[in-house]
C-alpha cells in the first residue's frame, strides 16, 4: 500500500503491499453487536509495527495510519471532552432534520 501524508495521519491506498495484511489485524469496532448492520462504524487495529490503523466498516479498503503516541493523545482529548462540541453540533443537525421531517408530514 502507498502512504499518503495528510495532517497527523497517513492514508494508505490499496495499491502496493505493505507487508501487513489488513485482514490479519484484530479490528475493534466502535459499536455494539446490537448495532450491527445499522451503518458505517469506525474500526481500529494496532499493527505489529506499532502503528494504529483505522478504517470505516463500509470502506475497509481505505485505511488511515497514525502512531501510537498520536492515538494516545487523541484518546486523551476525547476523554477530556475536547471534541464534545463536534458531537453536539452533529446532534443538533440530526435533531433539526428530524424536526423538519415531522413538520413536513
From TrEMBL:
Protein's recorded name: DUF397 domain-containing protein
Origin: domain of life: Bacteria
Organism, scientific name: Streptomyces himastatinicus ATCC 53653
Pfam families, alphabetized: DUF397
Every DUF397 domain range: 26-79
InterPro entries referenced in this protein's UniProt entry, alphabetically: DUF397 (IPR007278)
